[in-house]
Amino acid sequence: MTATDTQNDQNQKRWRPNMDRPRVVEWREPHGPGPHLGKENPR
Prior knowledge:
Residues 1-43 are annotated as: Disordered. The chain is an all-alpha fold. It has helices at residues 3-15, 21-28.
């Protein structure tokens, strides 16, 4: 767990408070940033 991971977790709770842990991992890992992640992952 890096400081960046902690920051990301806090950001995810802010924009989607109902997202459960497994969905966060599933969303973050598979293909990285892409057009389909534009709204959820502004990076």
